[in-house]
Amino acid sequence: MLYLSRFDVEPEESLYVRRWIAEKHLPDLLAAGFLTAASYEEINGSGHTADIYEIPHIEIFKTPAYRATGSDADDPERPRALAAMTNRSNTTYHVRAEHGDMEAGGNPEVVTLIQFEAASPGGQDTEFVTHLQQACVSAMDSFPGLLERVRVCERSGNHPDYPSDQPNWLIMLEWNKCPRGEDSTDLARNFHSAAEQLGFISGWSSRVLARARVQIAEASL
Q: 3-state secondary structure string, 89-110?
């Protein structure tokens, strides 16, 4: 499963928050059983951040090891870091389709996150996913050596403490370096065209984010 934590950071607290994420929060989550963990910031300097994780199952949020990571006594810097975050959302996704390097690590250098709501006609859910998977193949073929993997994900369950109001579909493009702006935009348009052929699409958004500049913890798999 993918777990996406999104938020904005107040500029004056940006360095403090990013250091806390890199040096405390991500290592704690990896120790609690998360498979991968990395933090990204939008390349346009907006302050928008996305922490992207791979988790073995949604029940991990109920384990004692995970619950202990939210202790202010163990992590006295946590209250200040959380207070500096606005527009927070925590969303869990089931990967419905993917294409590319399946052995690639979970922490690419750059990601494009496309989120949207989709209301497909009754009985066409599988066809909808298959259609998007074909768009994944086309995207990978268009950028050999640059686009490493594409994943199509659907919301599945909720974090027990932070129910999400984010759109129910996510397409994550994983790049080994930052693509040209027009390339990312064109791919987003292609996925939009593929999605709307089989359903009503709303709430569409696309963001390009790069690995945060501070040192990021990674799992040893």
A: EEEEEEEEEEEECCCCCCCCCE
The mean per-residue pLDDT over the stretch 207-214 comes to: 83
Distance CA 43, CA 45 (A): 5
Enumerate the β-bridge partners of residue 211.
40
Stated pTM of the model: 0.89
Determine the Cα–Cα distance for residues 70 and 74; give it in Å rounded to an integer: 8
pLDDT digits (tens, 9 = 90+) for 129-169: 888 888 888 989 989 889 999 999 999 988 888 888 899 99
In this structure, what DSSP letter does residue 179 have? Answer: P
Return d(Cα 65, Cα 100) in angstroms, integer: 33
For CA atoms 196, 198, 201, 207, the dihedral sign is negative
Give the C-alpha distances (Å, rounded to integers) separating 56 from 87, 101, 173, 219. Answer: 26, 19, 21, 13
